[in-house]
Design brief:
Layout lengths: L5 H9 L6 H4 L2 H20 L3 H14 L3 E2 L11 E6 L3 E6 L10 E6 L4 E12 L2 E9 L12 E8 L5 E6 L26 H4 L7 E4 L11 H14 L9 E7 L4 E3 L5 E4 L2 H15 L8 E6 L16 H14 L3 H4 L4 E5 L2 E2 L21 E4 L15 H13 L4 E3 L14 H5 L4 E6 L1 E2 L7 E4 H15 L1
Parallel strand pairs: 1-2, 4-13, 4-14, 14-18, 15-19, 16-17
Antiparallel strand pairs: 2-3, 3-13, 5-6, 5-10, 6-9, 7-8, 7-10, 11-12, 12-20, 16-18
Helix pairs in contact: 3-12, 7-12
Length: 466
């Protein structure tokens, strides 16, 4: 074999190089990654809304020894606690060996995903067809949600406080629902519109029935028939939709993609592909040096507002209460010394659409977990922009623990951009940087990720918490 030249040796020393994860992992390690992702696919199939994700996390945490937080209890090192916020966000914590005054290590990911929500008065009839009227949630390409099998998930809360949980469209025997679209033969005018205008938000009506109630004198007989079915099955009336949270999600199962089964296609990778590894990292943790905290939060896709989003005070209040009950501290004694990984996704390079990303600063499938130093748009607007000092610490951690990782921005300057929960944690005086999984077809009903990348997210999160 020819010896390397000085130039080749110097290039290896000085140039930044990235390698495909499969070239850096043993076959056994790749098999471990694939096995880890079997659990992730099961999670995706069970958890298509934030409420379902919280329920899953809660049940799994309780099984693994977590108990509800009690402000009157003084917890000791190794104790595992949880706090649930209105069934749509959850915080898990493991008390560490060091004082809270030395800071805590935080993983923060969101469990809401783009979808189609029902309006408060959704049920209507038109031309003897019954529909649900909707209001879409988060950033979607509306045309992607037509002619697609949909499932109905959510809860109806009756006036007496009774919860009626609904999940229709996932089982083989369930009916499903859809948004209809024009046939190409009659869509000449529609296809002249831009993609953003081809399907209007008010046209995302969900087809739910076509048979009339058998009564010649009543009106809206198809609507009446559907209302009667809902009443007989769920004991709800049209007025009960006023206090409901019901949503349409793709009625698709998480599937292996490719002959090599190296990828996963599913609805909701953004951001459950970070939430699941975060949860598993917490569950696999023993007693960490610093108190470890995992936040699974709501509302990121619509700006993190509301009392279950991280732009509210629920996380800060939890830390304040924990610090006071443990050591008589305040949140401001804990948070400035704390470190956080904002666990959120980034766009993966798609060779079909190469022009929107910049080759030196984009993520690739199978090249590991992605560090996004700053998000925002155009002139870095709306970003926390992690400090060089903190990025250096995370670089050193990942390299020393053999984590396969890469860096990326979300698109070319003046073209891309986006946000995460990082800025809301940075607002609390916490060091934070975005770490997540690269995704193809992000925000679509069927997103794609690499199994190697998912596993590297788990490894990165675990090593951060230890």
């Amino acid at each position: 074999m020819d010896e390397k030249t000085n130039g080749q040796l110097l290039s290896e020393k000085l140039f930044l190089t990235k390698k495909h994860g499969a070239k850096l992992l043993t076959d056994d390690r790749i098999s471990e990654a694939f096995e880890f992702c079997d659990g992730y696919k099961a999670f995706l199939n069970k958890c298509k809304t934030e409420r379902e994700a919280v329920s899953y996390a809660l049940n799994t945490a309780v099984y693994n020894g977590f108990t509800p937080y009690d402000s009157s209890t003084v917890y000791k090192s190794g104790d595992k606690i949880y706090y649930v916020n209105r069934d749509k966000a959850i915080i898990l914590a493991i008390i560490g060996q060091e004082s809270l005054a030395d800071g805590i290590n935080i993983l923060a990911s969101h469990i809401d995903s783009p979808r189609i929500d029902l309006k408060q008065v959704p049920l209507f009839e038109d031309s003897e067809l019954a529909y649900f009227d909707t209001h879409y949630y988060g950033g979607i390409k509306k045309y992607q949600w037509t002619a697609l099998p949909l499932a109905l998930h959510g809860v109806v809360v009756k006036k007496d406080g009774t919860n009626v949980f609904i999940n229709v469209g996932e089982d083989a025997d369930d009916p499903q629902f859809c948004v209809t679209d024009l046939l190409p033969h009659l869509a000449a005018e529609q296809m002249k519109r831009t993609l953003s205008e081809a399907i209007k938000g008010e046209d995302l009506n969900i087809l739910i029935g076509s048979l009339p109630f058998k009564d010649d004198k009543a009106s809206n007989l198809v609507k009446l028939n559907i209302a009667n079915i809902l009443y007989e099955k769920y004991d709800i009336t049209e007025a009960d939709f006023l206090s409901a949270e019901l949503t349409l999600v793709p009625a698709l199962r998480a599937s292996d993609i490719g002959f090599d089964r190296s990828m996963i296609g599913a609805y909701g990778h953004d951001d459950r592909v970070c939430a699941y590894p975060s949860l598993m990292a917490m569950l696999d943790l023993d007693t960490p040096a610093k108190t470890a905290v995992c936040i699974l939060t709501d509302k990121e896709e619509v700006g993190s507002d509301g009392n279950t989003g991280l732009n509210s005070c629920y996380f800060q209040n939890f830390i304040a209460a924990l610090a006071d009950s443990q050591e008589g501290l305040n949140a401001r004694d804990v948070l400035p010394s704390s470190k956080c990984l904002s666990a959120d996704v980034n766009a993966a390079h798609d060779p079909i659409y190469p022009d929107v990303l910049e080759s030196k600063n984009e993520a690739y499938l199978n090249y590991g977990v992605v560090m996004t130093k700053y998000t925002g748009s155009r002139g870095k607007a709306d970003t926390s922009d992690a400090s060089a000092e903190y990025v250096a610490k995370i670089r050193n951690l990942f390299d020393s623990r053999n984590i396969i990782w890469q860096t990326s921005e979300l698109g070319k300057v003046d073209m891309g951009g986006g946000g995460t929960v990082a800025k809301y944690l940075a607002k609390l005086d916490i060091d934070v940087v975005d770490i997540g999984v690269p995704v193809l077809s992000m925000h679509s009903p069927f997103e794609i990720v690499s199994k190697i990348d998912v596993f590297m997210a788990y490894r990165a999160f675990f090593e951060f918490l230890v």
